[in-house]
Amino acid sequence: MLASWIWPVRAVRLLLGGLALLAVGTQFTHEATLPGFSPVNFFSYFTILSNIAVGLLLVALGALPGTRHPRLEWVRAAMVVYMATTGLVYAILLDTGDPGLTLPWVNTVLHRVMPAALFVDWLVIRPQRHLGYGKALAWSGVPVLYLAYSLVRGAVIGWYPYPFLQPVEVGGVAGMLVHILGIAAGIAAASLLVAWLGNVRVQSTQMRAAA
Hints:
The protein is mostly helical and 211 residues long.
């Protein structure tokens, strides 16, 4: 059984966390040189926020020994869900083959490498305790707050971070609601799946210990 304090695992987490933060920092520096750049807009993308959060989490997990507190495991599981949301929404709704202003390698790191890395981390480093499914659904609260922020701010300033949040881009308010409800259902399903995967591994460990 691998544990979070074994040095190779900690080293990989440090590298991945640093990579996520480097990618966000590089993209910020790149866009800051462009006309009309808005720092607030930059940090209004779920992709940016989720990658900053997961970068900091991985650095903490890699740098600090004994970081397997139940609450931290709950946060780690939540970040798996958020990164899965980032990766899947990009793949299904946003990947047109043209990264736009996003640097190609940054695009790959933020939308592909980090979501996959967090999922593998969750499969390899199993949680120590059972995760309640009700609490797992609470992970949806962060994306809901993000959507509320994006819609309210977009209505005020006329700028939305993603086209599926802008009614004129998706066939009106009905089209926007379909996209939002679909994403919400996907996040809820991902939350339950991540909790189940963790609980199955916890249960198998307990059964082996009992045997």
